[in-house]
Amino acid sequence: MPVITLPDGSQRQFDHAVTVADVAADIGPGLAKAALAGRVGDTVVDTSYLISDDADLAIITARDDDGLDVIRHSTAHLMAQAVKQLFPSAQITIGPVIENGFFYDFSYERGFTPEDLSAIETSMGELAKADLQVSRSELSRDDAVAYFKDQGEHYKAEIIESIPAEEAIGLYGQGDWKDLCRGPHVPSTGHLKAFKLMKLAGAYWRGDSDNEMLQRIYGTAWGDKKALKAYLHRLEEAEKRDHRKFGTALDLFHLQPEAPGMVFWHDKGWRLYLVIENYVREKLSNGGYQEVRTPQILDRSLWEKSGHWGKYDENMFTTGSEKRDYAIKPMNCPGHVQIYNHGLHSYKDLPIRMAEFGSCHRNEASGTLHGLMRVRNFVQDDAHIFCTEDQIQEEVARFIELLKDVYADFGFTDIIINLSTRPEQRVGADALWDKAEAALESVLNTLGLDWTLQAGEGAFYGPKIDFSLKDSIGRVWQLGTMQLDFSMPDRLDAQYVDRDGVKRTPVMLHRAILGSLERFIGVLLEHYAGILPFWLSPVQCVVMGITHRQDEYVKKIAETLKKQGFRVDLDLRNEKIGLKIRQHSVQKIPYLLVVGDREMENGTVALRAQNGDDLGSQSVEAVTELFADLVAKRSRV
RNA sequence: GCCGAGAUAGCUCAGUCGGUAGAGCAACUGAUUCGUAAUCAGUAGGUCGGAGGUUCGAUUCCUCUUCUCGGCACCA
């Protein structure tokens, strides 16, 4: 006699055990049709799930997030079914739900082609239209293994073999096809109406690069065609923001085959780069950091001592001279320890905060390179803080304050914080880890920050806090980091003389706010869709005349603004004003200053903002004031 | 690095079922001196990523290679 409590608090009583579908039908025929699954308590179940005791139940439809997951999961199954139908000798493996869609990995004797993909999609459409019932059954583990082995599905059998023998295995079937699955799934394939196969890719079996490479097909699936269309539109919009496009279109930078993963910064891109670097430089200087410069190339022995040669030799560029081996630095820290070691330090000197905008090279695998986001040569807003264990907490707090300040200036306020603690393989005594992790945790809590624990994700030499931010279209980028290091100062013999006259090893904090400047610029460009805030814009305004009569006046205005420190271009070409405005608008220049005879007579300029707003005729003083204010506030235009 | 796809003018792209290529924008020349997102006309521009092979002939087919793109693994 189950009593079913619905989300609105209403209750329905039945005199026999009921399925989720029964309850939905009892509520109304519309809901019965739309029901994809049910949520009993916290568990999402099939509509065929039988409820015999009192329960809280929500009927899940495509409008529910859980409903979307069910649709995506079922669409993955639909795809696997289609693949097996078209390519019977393909083997199925796993097919989970991911953000916005799903994928399924297959093993097949040849690679799938884009033509195969559209054939699979067509076939999926037919299977969905056939509205096949999806049914769940159970087998004992050993029977399930035997079943899949018999079907020639060796990967599936392997997965099931790793499940405890006493557990029953859930099988979902539709038509003549069955897959091992926890479920839940839609009641019939007719509920799958809005999906699209997106791309083909390789993926290692069980995510291990020593294993066979499988073929992964990615797809997206939604509750209805409209949502699918909206998603595809969002993808197009994201593509338009691709920072690599702005590299060429705005003449900021380029990459070429002779220097894979290493950026050629053009005039305008380098201006942007320098504005950012100098901005951080000033912030660090105000924050009590010293700035240093260390060599690009250091002897092998130093990298052996630091441990890098042993661990990362594949990923370092090396060179030689007169029988000596050198490595081009992949990081600044060993160099900083050399400066630290040059002289004797008292505990009174600590903390020492040492910053460097040093150019680093890492020989990243070729397949990982990606525009500015993943490069082989980069500069970080890098610094190392040498301090005592007792100073960790305060230094971390100071750093976070600085970081928030900097992020806000760049227009990012949505910061995501992760604390990563000791990994299995690590150096340093557990007592030290206890202390360090507690210190980081305590700082985060004291500052009242939201953070997530990533247990076991710390570096081998110490725990760390990572800072990510969300951009304007919701993508998350990890930028900042604060890593505690108990290993390197000791390896490289850094010491200080403590209060009691005993030499002790300082703790070293590796920290960066923006991370790689290259990558940060990539993130900025995508975040702002190329329309940079005034203070960052490589060209802040263009002054242009209507005819040649205003040439001298244009030059004078431009000169005045340049003297105030603004980045100004002038356009004296004999072109129509419409063309000039179009071209500079396309270049995303924050302000266009147009002068004709009228402005020349009045000593004013006609101001036009990047978004097309006509700000009317203004005096040069008013414009200067506006610009200075924008820079001071670092506000978006 | 691995799987797959791609590389054609400065940029964006079309094309050639094997007979050495075409558009728009940009560039250059000329005309136009014009009031807020494209003035008109003309000219020039390519060893079709690189190397090798098949062929009478390769930008096209094959092999290798470099780089790029999408993933996977990696990311001190």
Give a description of the structure.
With 637 residues, the chain is α+β, with helices and mostly antiparallel strands. It folds into four domains: 3-60, Ubiquitin-like (UB roll) (Roll); 65-238, Threonyl-trna Synthetase, Chain A, domain 2 (Threonyl-tRNA Synthetase, Chain A, domain 2), CATH 3.30.980.10; 248-294 and 329-527, Bira Bifunctional Protein, Domain 2 (BirA Bifunctional Protein, domain 2, 2-Layer Sandwich); 541-636, Anticodon-binding domain (Rossmann fold). Helix content is 36%, strand content 28%. The protein has 20 helices and 36 strands. The strands form nine sheets. Strands 18, 22, 23, 24, 25, 26, 27, 28 and 31 form a nine-stranded mixed beta sheet that branches. It has a five-stranded mixed beta sheet with strand order 2-1-7-4-5. Strands 8, 9, 10, 14 and 15 form a five-stranded antiparallel beta sheet that branches. Helix 3 (65-86) crosses helix 4 (114-129). The longest helix has 22 residues, at 65-86. The radius of gyration is 31 Å and the shape is globular. The model has no long low-confidence stretch (mean pLDDT 94). The structure holds one RNA strand of 76 nucleotides.
In CATH terms, the superfamily of the largest domain is Bira Bifunctional Protein, Domain 2
| Rg computed from alpha carbons, rounded to a whole number of angstroms | 31 Å
What does the largest sheet look like?
Answer: 9 strands, mixed
Mean pLDDT: 94
CATH level-3 fold name of the largest domain: BirA Bifunctional Protein, domain 2
